[in-house]
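Private note to self, pasted from the team thread so I don't lose it. Backbone tokens:
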């Protein structure tokens, strides 16, 4: 049996951040991830300055692909706004691997299936034992399923459905574009260029609203890529988009129990206005690590429910929920 002080299940931004800080605090940390890193992660790869700061990453020192935007191009019907806003794009394929390596923990490729408690410890798949267990396995996290789901049922009204593709493409427009509510989509579409010839295009919307409208997110794909073509943004004929679902921040209360903790998408922490999940995942990883290392309480109180704030954020939240 392999024994560690802490086992982190999932090596995405929530898990790697938690592992990094637990290692800093001197714990022996094992990260189990079902995927071999670097692994693909469906994500537009938009990262905020706040998330970079929480990760103690200076964008100028980040050694892989990173692109900076000084404004966003926001489209709604015929209107376009270009608010000044410093933001970044990275490729998750590279970023998550970089963060996981930096964490300095032992990483094993292993798909976790069964977890049980044993005399104050946790036993994972009969092969790994630890005192502290961190569930960072995203939407399908086995720690959430085993110990938190019944007390923290996630709200279906806050479930997203996404459809996207990232591919090598010699883009010409270096702006980040977002189109809100096109053709009644209860969400938004994006065009996010990446440094050195990559691009991510996709759609994200509220799953339950799509169902109520009698469709799903895939129904919007054809019109979206036609628009990219018409606008001269992307001319491409080999699309094979894929989907993934995650949860926006709900009223989750119980996030730790008897030395087990849940962080990131496992909780459902993405923001209610922009569906941003990386920043909240990182913050929750930091807070869980601090709680373990200092025997403090772990709470989500310091993690914002919104990426922005004020009227615009509330309006987006209401529109995603179906307000006219
Ligand atoms: C299409 C799309 C676009 C998005 N765009 C953005 C964006 O631009 N900006 C942003 O901030 N957020 C975005 N998000 C949200 C963001 O990707 C997530 O919120 C973020 O990845 C959460 O990080 P995490 O570490 O909690 O989970 P993840 O990054 O999902 O990591 C979970 C890890 O757990 C592993 N795992 C799962 N089950 C098991 C198991 N049984 N055993 C072992 N390992 C397991 C997985 O392999 C994975 O590596 C987007 C999401 C989607 C789907």
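Design output:
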């Amino acid at each position: 049996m392999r024994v560690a002080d802490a086992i982190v299940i999932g090596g995405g931004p929530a898990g790697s951040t938690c592992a990094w800080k637990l290692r800093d605090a001197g714990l022996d940390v094992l990260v189990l991830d079902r995927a071999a890193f670097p692994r693909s992660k469906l994500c537009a790869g938009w990262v905020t300055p706040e998330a970079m700061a929480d990760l103690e990453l200076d964008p100028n020192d980040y050694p892989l692909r990173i692109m900076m935007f000084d404004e966003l191009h926001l489209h709604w019907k015929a209107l376009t706004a270009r608010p000044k806003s410093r933001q970044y794009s990275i490729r998750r394929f590279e970023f998550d691997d970089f963060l996981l390596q930096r964490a300095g923990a032992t990483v094993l490729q292993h798909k976790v299936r069964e977890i049980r408690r044993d005399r104050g410890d946790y036993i994972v798949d009969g092969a790994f034992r630890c005192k502290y267990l961190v569930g960072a396995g995203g939407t399908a996290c086995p720690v959430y399923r085993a110990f938190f789901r019944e007390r923290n049922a996630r709200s279906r009204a806050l479930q997203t459905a996404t459809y996207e593709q990232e591919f090598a493409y010699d883009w010409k427009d270096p702006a980040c574009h977002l189109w809100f509510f096109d053709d009644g989509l209860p969400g938004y579409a994006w065009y996010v260029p990446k440094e050195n010839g990559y691009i991510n295009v996709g759609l994200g919307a509220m799953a339950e609203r799509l169902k109520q409208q009698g469709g799903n997110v895939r129904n919007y794909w054809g019109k979206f890529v036609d628009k990219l073509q018409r606008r001269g943004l992307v001319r491409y004929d080999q699309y094979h988009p894929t989907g993934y679902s995650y949860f926006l921040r709900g009223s989750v209360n119980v996030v730790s129990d008897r030395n087990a903790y849940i962080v990131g998408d496992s909780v459902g922490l993405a923001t209610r206005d922009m569906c941003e999940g990386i920043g909240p995942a990182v913050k929750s990883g930091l807070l869980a690590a601090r709680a373990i290392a200092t025997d403090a309480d772990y709470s989500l109180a310091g993690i914002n429910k919104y990426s922005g704030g004020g009227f615009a954020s509330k309006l987006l939240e209401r529109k995603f929920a179906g307000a006219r």
